[in-house]
Design a protein that fits this description.
The protein is α+β, with helices and mostly antiparallel strands and 113 residues long. It has 3 helices and 4 strands. The longest helix is centred in the middle third of the chain and has 24 residues, at 32-55.
């Protein structure tokens, strides 16, 4: 009877899938701070640029994406006209909001630590 799992000649399953998973977890843990920092910075930059574009320059939010740097394709934007603010999100990792204040321009909310 054939089994659905591959077995080695000695009857044991291969270990390489578990080794690859362990290596990926070690790499993710090693670079966790850098990844979160870049996600937070990208979201903050996106929120500030989009808020300025939308509420100072008066352009549409879709047009504001033209002002993003290369590599910011994962940043999503949402407009909140009643608060005159824009929220930028990096999926699953970070979110930042910038609000337009007369005389001050677009101001980012304080970062959580």
């Amino acid at each position: 009877m054939a089994t659905r799992r591959r077995l080695k000649a000695n009857g044991r399953r291969p270990r390489w899938p578990w080794l690859i998973l362990a290596l990926l977890l070690v790499v993710a843990a090693w670079f966790h701070t850098a990844i979160i920092g870049r996600a937070r910075t990208g979201a903050a930059y996106g929120a500030h640029i989009a808020c300025s574009c939308r509420y100072i320059a008066g352009r549409s939010l879709g047009d504001c994406r033209k002002d993003f740097e290369a590599g910011m394709g994962l940043i999503s934007l949402s407009d909140h006209p009643e608060q005159r603010s824009v929220t930028a999100r990096f999926p699953l990792l970070s979110s930042q909001t910038a609000t337009y204040h007369e005389g001050q321009g677009c101001v980012l909310e304080a970062w959580d630590r």
